[in-house]
Amino acid sequence: MRANLAVPFLVLLVSVGETAAAQSGRLDYPQWRGRDRDGAASGFVEPPAWPAELTRRWTIPIGEGYGTPLVLGDRVFMFTRQNGDEVMTSLNAETGSVVWRTTYAAPYAMFAATANHGPGPKATPLFFEGTLFTLGISGIISAFDAANGRLRWQTPMPAEQPFYGTASSPAADGGLVFVHTGNYDALTAFDRDTGAVVWRTAGTFTYSSPLVVEVDGVRQVVSVSQDHVVGLSARDGAVLWAHPFSSPHTHAITPIAHAGRIVVGAQNMGIRALRPRRQAAEWVVETEWRNDDVSPGMTNPVVVADTLFGLSERRRGQFFALDANTGATLWLGPPRQAENTAIVKTERLLFLLNDDAELIVARAGRARFEPVARHVVADSPTWAQPAISGDRIFVKDVDTLTLWTVTPPVR
Predict the structure, then answer these.
(1) Contact between residue 394 and residue 54 where contact means Cβ atoms under 8 Å apart
(2) Are 349 and 363 a contacting pair, CB within 8 Å?
(3) Which of 65, 110, 128, 373 is most buried (CB neighbours < 10 A)?
(4) By the 8 A CB rule, do 90 and 101 touch?
(5) CA–CA separation, 19 and 394 (whole Å)
(6) Cβ distance 59 to 402 under 8 Å?
(7) If 0-12 CB within 10 Å is exposed, 13-18 middle and 19+ buried, where does residue 357 land?
(8) What would the pLDDT profile of 333-391 be if each residue is shown by its tens digit?
């Protein structure tokens, strides 16, 4: 299937294209969970005193979907659904005005079990060396020129529609882009420039997004299949190591790399830290710690200064802190906080965006749950991860995008 593209209706200035292509700015937020795929804000500086209210700079209709906004230079990129099409939109970060907009047909019939999930897309785009890579709800993978929205390549719609849709956010390394494709399909490496398949693994992968790390000097893609945590050679997809991690539930948590460990969790499975290492010509994997006091469900934890923070699905949503080196429970917060939260970290703060549109700002402390402020930042549910760039907080709700700032505008 060829994409039916709408011609971008505004021209992007050359200087903006150069800014977007750099991907080295301190304030850039170029992919799922930020620059290093670890949930960190980009260039945030904590104010001396937290404001009583955030400043709303603009709100625009943008379409449905759960993808995180990407921030590159003075542009914001959103991947959404509008009128049955999947749409990549480039916006002016200062004003929210549309710079370019590219669409393609993406019909998707929701099953009864997925009606509450919406028609997506659910995966966050990836900005990599001047190109935006997306995974649509039905498994269509696209590459767009970030400067002008031109489609560089696109895969056909899979013959079989994924039952729950796709949700795994692409990652990249070298000249390759890694995506969990199709209906519980393999992890696949595509050539960044042409879209040609370079390698494809065996196994059944679902919704956890892959992580590219270096372990014992070997560059590898770490991801979670339906029954294993695996480390694959980034170069050729060879299985370096695999650790059993089977669950009747869908795996959705992105692995976390911390101090040589791979930290993983899943619904009703607690959290555990694995240490893969080379032993002669083989790889071995040890479980360094396991904590069953908490279970992350659908919320991705973060690590700040050797402390793992997250939201447990138990007790109707309970924030927690664990020692990231030992797995010991440091504190459990009050119950009934949220069904889901999206966490962004700084050196001392946690931004906890609950699905009911409440943004909790809390200290990243080891002693107790310590909220600093609470703000309502949308008029509808907020399932998408926010993008925090400098003092700017970009929040996607059901179908709008809003820019909030921590500091008031200069008058």
Answers:
(1) no
(2) yes
(3) 65
(4) yes
(5) 19
(6) yes
(7) middle
(8) 999 999 999 999 999 999 999 999 999 999 999 999 999 999 999 999 999 999 999 99
Residue type for 333, please?
G
Structure tokens at 167: 């949700």
CATH topology of domain 14-403: Methylamine Dehydrogenase; Chain H (2.130.10)
For the chain, the structural domain boundaries read 14-403
Report the distance separating Cα 48 and Cα 32, nearest Å.
Answer: 29
In whole angstroms, what is the distance from residue 321 CA to residue 302 CA? 10
> Does residue 70 sit in helix, strand or coil?
strand
Q: Indicate the SS3 state at residue 316.
A: helix
- Whether the Cβ atoms of residue 341 and residue 333 lie closer than 8 Å to each other: no
Peptide bond just before 121 cis, omega within 30 deg: yes
Residue 325 burial (C-beta neighbours within 10 Å; 0-12, 13-18, 19+): middle
Of 411, 406, 405, 396, give the one whose Cα is nearest residue 60: 396
The helix/strand count (H/E) of the chain reads as 1, 32
Q: How is residue 338 written in tokens?
A: 């949220």
What is the enclosing helix (H) or strand (E) of 57? strand 55-61
Q: Give me 247's structure tokens.
A: 């669950």
CB-count burial class (<10 Å; 0-12, 13-18, 19+) for 174: exposed
